[in-house]
Amino acid sequence: MKLPKYGIFSASIKEFFSTLATITVKRSITCRMWFLSWKIENSVLPQRTKISPDLVDKLESLALVDFGNQEGVNCLEEAIRFADQLHVVNTDGVEPMDSVLENSAALRWRDDNLKLDDCAWELLQLATDTVEEYFVSTQGQIVGRIICAKNPTTL
Amino acid sequence: MAASSSGNRILFPPQMVGVVGLEIHAQIHAASKLFSSSGVRFSAPPNSLVACFDASLPGTLPVLNRRCVEASVMTGLALNCTINRKSLFDRKHYFYADMPAGYQITQQRLPIAVNGSLTYSYLGGRKRNQVVTKNVRIKQIQLEQDSGKSLHDDHRNQTLIDLNRAGVGLMEVVMEADMECGEEAAAAVRELQLILQTLGTCYGNMAEGQLRVDANVSVHRPGEPLGVRTEVKNINSARYVAKAIDYEIQRQMEVLDTGGTILNETRAFDSKSGFMPEPNLPPLFVYESVASVPAGVDPTQVVVIDRLKAILPELPGVKRAQLVEEYGLLPEHSFTLVNEVGLMDYFERVIQKTKAEPRKVIGWVIKELLGNLNQNGLRLTQSPISSEALAELLNILESGHISTSAAKVVFQEMWKLPEKSVKQLVAELDLELISDQEQILQICRRVVDAHPEEVRVIRAGNKKVLNKLMGIVQKETKGRTDPLQVRRILEEMTS
C-alpha cells in the first residue's frame, strides 16, 4: 500500500497517535498468543525514516504539538516504522478508501429545518474564561503534548 | 501612474497589465447551517446559534443540509457549470480560535460544480455610457463551512469568540485570473451578486458578510510569465473591491518599477498541505434526471438536476435583453435599470401609468431620478418621488400643458415637497404653458421691438442671435412657452 505523504500525517498527527496507541495495545495482546502471530523481516521493509530537526520544527508548527525532544522524535520514528509494515501489502491498482463505509453508506441529508439548541449556553457555563457571552481564546499558540505509548513495538 | 479623476481608472505604463482572479465566499441563504440544525442569522446575541457540532464537541457528526446542495447546484447551473454527479468532502486543517474543530469541511478534490463562465458588463468609454461586455471563467464552486467570528479586544489583550457563524454554509466561487483591473473585478462581483439574488441562493449583502471577496493580484507584461501573486483578503464592500485591487496593482507596479520583487506573505503553508478526506461524509451524489435515480432510493434523499433547471428564474442577462427588445431601450439604459436595485420595477410601473414613450421615460428615470438620488446619497426606496407621481408629471408634459424645462423645475419642487400633488405644484409655480396665442404673439412682438440691433443682425444672416431672443422670451414668460412655437414666431417676425 502506498502510504500518504507526510503532509497528510502532519495534518492529522493527533489522530494518528491516538490510533497508534490503540493498535499498539492490540498488537501486544496478539503477541502473547504466539501461535497466531507473525514476524516481518527487516529486509522487506524500506529504510528506517529519520526525522530531521527541520522537519520536527515544521511538524510542530503545523500540528501545534510540542514533541521537539529526543523521546518525542523517537516516538514518531517508531510510529513510522510500525506503519512501514504496510509496505508489504501489494496495492497495485487499488484506490485508497476515504472511509470503509464509502461504498455502502449513502450520504443521508436532512431538511433545512431549524432546531433550537442550548449547547452554547451550557458550554459558556463550563468555559473557564468568558466575557459577556463570548468565549475567550487563549493568546498565542495552543500547544499539546504527545504522550508516547508504553512499549511501542520495536523492529 | 496617477489615479484619474473619474474614479477607479488608473493609468498603467503601457507595458504592464494587472492579472486578477477572485475567490468569492457566498453565504447560502438557508434557515439552518450546512452540517447542523442551528439557525443562520446576522446580529443574533453572541453564541446563541451554536449546536454541539458547531462547537466541535466530541461525538458530534456532520449531517448535510439538503437546501445547501440545491443552492449550490442552482448556482452552478446559472453559471454554466458542469455539475459533478459525484463530489467529495475534505478537511482543511489550520488552527484558528474561531474554528473549534481545527479543520474546515470543504470540497477540495472534487467540488460540486466546475468549468463554468460568467458574462459581466460595465459602462466604459470616455463618457461611461458604452456597455463593455467581458467573460470570466468559473473554475469551480465548492460547498464549505464558514468559521466563527473573532473580535480582538486590544484593551485587555484577548480575543473574543462568537460561534454563531461557525458552520454556516458557504459556496466558494472561484473565478480564474481573466480580469485585468479593479473595475472588471467589481463588475464581475456585481453580476454574480445579481445572479445569486435572483436565484435566492444568497442575498449577497456584503455589509453583513453574506458575500466576501478575496482577490489574487499580480502584474506582468503581456506575453511574459505571470508575476508573483499576492492576496487581498476579505473585501466586504462593493465599492472597496475595485479600489483595493487597483491599489494593489499600482503598488506592485511601483515595486517592480524601482527594481524590487513582490513578496507573497499570506500563504504561511503550502496550499496543498493540510487536506485530508472527510471520513464522516460519504460521497455526495446528485442525479441528472428522475430516470437516472436508481430504484429503491428514498425520493426525499435525492436532488435531481433537471428539476432544478426547470425552476431556474430569469437571470439578469435575459432581463436586460428583454428590456431592450420590449421597450426599445439602449443597452446602457437596460444595464443601469437591472444594475440598480428596484429601478427596473420602478421604470415598469411608470410605463404602465403614462402614455409617454419608453425612451422618454428612461431619460427621466435615469438622468433626473437616479441622478438626484445619487447626488443626495439616497437609495430608490428613499425616493421622495413615487412612480405614480413621476407618471403624472410625464402625462402633463405629454399633453402639452407644460414645457420640458418647466417639467424639470416641477420635478425639483416635487423632490422637496413630496406631499404636494403634481397639479398643485404646476398651478402654484404658475408654470402652465400659455395657450393664448395672442399673448405669445404680443410678448414676441415686444421683445423684437425692444431689440432692433439683434433683429438687424439676424436679418443680415446671423441666425444664431435668434437664440438670444428666444432666451429673452422664455425668461419673460418664465418658461411657459413652447420653444418650438416661439422660434417659429420669432423667425417669421425677423424675416
Automatic annotation (TrEMBL), chain A:
Task: Say which domain of life the source belongs to.
Answer: Eukaryota
Family annotation (Pfam families): GatC (PF02686)
**GO CC annotations?**
glutamyl-tRNA(Gln) amidotransferase complex; mitochondrion
Tell me the InterPro entries matching this sequence: Asp/Glu-ADT_sf_sub_c, GatC
User: From its record, what is one biological process in GO terms?
Assistant: mitochondrial translation
User: What's the protein here called?
Assistant: Glutamyl-tRNA(Gln) amidotransferase subunit C, mitochondrial
TrEMBL record, chain B:
Q: What is the annotated localization of this protein? A: Mitochondrion
**What Gene Ontology biological process does one annotation of this record name?**
glutaminyl-tRNAGln biosynthesis via transamidation
Reply yes or no: does the keyword Mitochondrion apply.
yes
Q: Per the database record, which ranges form the Asn/Gln amidotransferase domain?
A: 345-494
**Gene Ontology molecular functions:** asparaginyl-tRNA synthase (glutamine-hydrolyzing) activity; ATP binding; glutaminyl-tRNA synthase (glutamine-hydrolyzing) activity
How would you classify this enzyme at the top EC level?
Answer: ligase
> Which keywords has UniProt assigned to this entry?
ATP-binding, Ligase, Mitochondrion, Nucleotide-binding, Protein biosynthesis
Q: One Pfam family this chain carries?
A: GatB_Yqey
Q: How does it assemble?
A: Heterotrimer of A, B and C subunits. Subunit of the heterotrimeric GatCAB amidotransferase (AdT) complex, composed of A (QRSL1), B (GATB) and C (GATC) subunits.
How is this protein named in the record? Glutamyl-tRNA(Gln) amidotransferase subunit B, mitochondrial
Q: What is the protein's species of origin?
A: Electrophorus electricus
